[in-house]
Amino acid sequence: MKIYHIFLLLLIFISGMGFNNLINAIEISTAQIETKNQAEDKKIEDIVKEELPSIIGIESYFSNGKINASGIIFREDGYIIANYHSIDGAEKIYIYFQNGEKKEAVLVGKDSQKDLAVLKVDKSNLPIVTFGNSDEVQIGQMAIAIGNPLGEQLSGTVTVGVISALNRRLKIDGYFMDLIQTDAAINKGNSGGALLDKEGKVIGINTFHIPSDKAVGIGFAIPSNIILETIDKIMKIK
Q1: Is 191 a catalytic residue?
Q2: Three-class SS state of 115
Q3: Could you tell me the CATH number of the domain that includes residue 80?
Q4: Could you tell me if 149 and 219 lie in one domain?
Q5: Mind listing the pLDDT tens digit for each residue in 72-100?
Q6: Rounded distance, CA 207 to CA 180, Å?
Q7: Which of 30, 35, 158, 167 would you call most buried, defined as having the most Cβ atoms within 10 angstroms of its Cβ?
């Protein structure tokens, strides 16, 4: 009987140690999850802080009014990528930086079939975007849209969502394109703004959205690989 009691006490002691270790493991795991979530939340903020200066606003003036849009700086010496539909036929084009500075821009070249254009401003040492590989984009991954919906008053607006679909074949201004679909909010004026991945790399340029009276959370972006190929051609013949 005495041996039985000793064995029972030993079993309880060992069980207690196991229970404590289990509790400690749970506490460590919970702390790791909380730390990971905090790091992810902070990373979005870091991405925005780093990339926002390379996203600009565009004001295109026509004889009958003005169009607001967005663009991205891809070269330090003042070269900017924009959607062609936002500047097509403009008499004057101005861009504004996130600090409010405005500069007149000139059209360097365009590809209307890809809805892309290159603008140039007389300014150097500008912050530039980094491009990602759109062929590696996966459905469900995080997407960050940065642009200027409705113009300068709402410049630098950031929305976060996911990649909803890939290779959406849609017709833009008479030409078919394979686009990235996202539920990150894209509004009028966002055209030409950046669609970023979780590393802050440009995986697309926001180009249009389905109006809210027809659908909610359906926007589209031109994939980065198409952008790079098109811009390379434009720059070679400029």
Answers
A1: yes
A2: coil
A3: 2.40.10.10
A4: yes
A5: 999 999 999 999 999 999 999 999 999 98
A6: 10
A7: 158
Q: What is the Cα–Cα distance from 61 to 147, expressed in whole angstroms?
A: 19
**Strands of 19-124, DSSP E:** 55-62, 65-75, 79-83, 92-96, 102-111, 116-121
CA angle 227, 232, 237 (to 5 degrees): 130
- Cα→Cα distances 215→159, 176, 187, 218, Å: 17, 21, 13, 7
Say which of 60, 70, 86, 115 is annotated catalytic. Answer: 115
- 77 is annotated as an active-site residue: no
205: containing domain: 134-236
Boundary-marking domain end, from 127, 160, 190: 127
Burial of 139 by CB count in 10 Å (0-12 exposed, 13-18 middle, 19+ buried)? exposed
Q: Do 102 and 144 sit in the same domain of this protein? A: no
Q: Is residue 39 part of a domain?
A: no
| In a domain? residue 15 | no
Residue type, 87: I
In terms of domains, do 58 and 82 share one? yes
- Pairwise CA distance, residues 75 & 83, whole Å: 17
Q: How many domains does the chain have?
A: 2
Q: Does residue 121 share a domain with residue 147?
A: no
Cα separation, 216 vs 213, whole angstroms? 8
Residue among 191, 197, 209, 224 flagged as catalytic: 191
pTM over 0.85: no
Strand-pair category, 55-62 with 92-96: antiparallel
pLDDT of 14 > 50? The answer is no
Based on the domain organization, do 144 and 123 belong to the same domain? no
Q: Which of 54, 60, 70, 85 is catalytic?
A: 85
Q: Cβ distance 93 to 48 under 8 Å?
A: no
8 Å CB contact between 179 and 219: no
